[in-house]
Design brief:
single chain, alpha/beta, five-stranded parallel beta sheet, 51% helix, elongated
């Protein structure tokens, strides 16, 4: 791809004007670029393999790729999977091959948004990467395990780039102030709020800085004033991608860990990200059955009641019913004994095939059924001592299996005592 024309300095975005000119200038990513960082070690060994840089927006993927090419004395070429197709890839590879043959110089091919290429297009990289025609640096915001095919991943190392922390964002603010020759018109609280608005995205922070620098007047802004002139960055959340599952997992595990504060936080994060509350209600109902179970038998009807309350109230009032459910599930005693018992019962059902119930618990609805023994010997439990006959209800010839093992938590503690007592009675009445 030919180099794009460079805009005059006055018209270039601040993020471009402050783009680092060496790896030492990169803010953040010390785990890769620090003295013992992986990329530093690769450059010191003069071996730069093909890489996949995985990280959120504004964490430096493009900048690092450019600087790696410079440090490794490789020709840099950039394409975007959003705007490029097979013809562009073919041209890039042919150019890299020609230049290598003519000059001996290798090419670092940077592919932005590489996950947007389909599987067949990704396979097109393989022979050129294997031959060393290009050093491929792919950038992606998506989990490579899901977004890239295994053949390409086996030929690349995946490096995870971290979102910028508060110290890194502050360093960017200081560089912006040095470039402008004046401090930002913000008090300390507003400065902190500006960094929070960027949510770890350095490019977005510098875009916010440009908006603040363009404000007329010299008055110092507080957090409220700042919020009225610049927009907070939307939290990262994609209902069809990995972050969706990460946050749902965080909610589920916080509930399981009996932490109502963390559970409410993740619940709010998911809602603020735009998730349908009905999806959350379904997940909470499943949690009530799977992780609370019989330790608190009221959890499941409460879950369905909260779900119904949301349907009746709608947003935003209905979310409060779900929040109440979140707190109840987090503080309830936990047991997955029913979940485990059900899974074991399914395995047992598959293993035992079509064994029928014993005759004494079959329903004798006709004379023939009575004549062949259906219902014979059945003991009516309500007429038995303690309302428990202790009869066998498994198929004839099949050993009794103990599937449900209640815990000693919550209601199940009482259930365990009852079942232990019944097991003893069953044993005493066995012929």
């Amino acid at each position: 791809m030919p180099d794009m024309p460079v805009a005059p300095a006055a018209n270039r975005p601040l993020a471009d004007r402050l783009r680092p000119q060496s790896l030492d200038d990169v803010v953040g990513q010390e785990h890769l670029l620090g003295p013992s960082g992986m990329l530093r070690q690769m450059l010191a060994r003069r071996t730069l393999p093909s890489l996949i840089l995985w990280g959120g927006p504004g964490c430096g993927k493009t900048t690092i790729a450019r600087l790696l090419a410079r440090a490794a004395t490789l020709r840099f070429e950039q394409i975007s999977a959003v705007f490029s197709g097979v013809a562009d890839l073919k041209k890039a590879f042919e150019t890299a091959d020609r230049i290598q043959k003519e000059t001996g110089r290798g090419t670092l091919l940077f592919v932005d948004e590489i996950h947007r290429f389909n599987r067949a297009q990704q396979d097109g990289f393989l022979p050129y990467v294997e031959r060393g025609t290009v050093v491929l640096i792919g950038a992606t915001t998506e989990n490579p395990s899901f977004a890239l095919n295994g053949a390409l991943l086996s030929r690349c190392q995946v490096l995870v780039l971290k979102r910028l922390d508060d110290d890194g964002l502050e360093r960017l603010l200081q560089r912006a102030e040095a470039e402008a020759g004046r401090a930002l018109p913000l008090d300390e609280a507003a400065r902190l709020s500006l960094r929070a608005m960027a949510d770890g995205d350095g490019r977005y922070l510098l875009n916010l800085v440009e908006q603040v620098q363009a404000l007329p007047g010299d008055s110092i802004l507080g957090p409220g004033d700042l919020a009225s002139v610049v927009a907070r960055r939307a939290a990262l959340y994609d209902k069809d991608r990995e972050e969706h599952y990460n946050l749902i997992s965080a909610l589920h595990k916080s509930l399981r860990g009996s932490d109502p504060d963390a559970a409410l936080y993740w619940f709010a994060r998911i809602l603020e990200g735009g998730e349908d509350p009905r999806y959350i209600a379904r997940r909470l109902t499943r949690f009530a059955a799977e992780d609370v179970g019989m330790a608190d038998p009221g959890a499941l009807p409460l879950a369905t009641a909260a779900w119904e309350s949301y349907e009746r109230l709608g947003s935003p009032e209905g979310e409060l019913a779900l929040a109440q459910l979140v707190v109840h599930l987090a503080t309830a005693p936990k047991s997955n004994a029913v979940y485990r018992a059900y899974n074991q019962a399914r395995r047992l059902a598959r293993e035992t095939g079509s064994l029928g119930p014993p005759n004494h618990i079959r329903n004798a609805s006709t004379r023939l059924m009575k004549e062949i023994g259906y219902g014979k010997g059945y003991e009516y439990d309500h007429d038995s001592e303690e309302g428990f006959s202790g009869q066998n209800y498994f198929p004839d010839g099949m050993e009794r299996v103990s599937l449900y093992q209640p815990t000693d938590r919550g209601h199940e503690g009482d259930l365990r005592k009852i079942l232990d007592r019944r097991a003893a009675l069953r044993a005493s009445r066995r012929p």
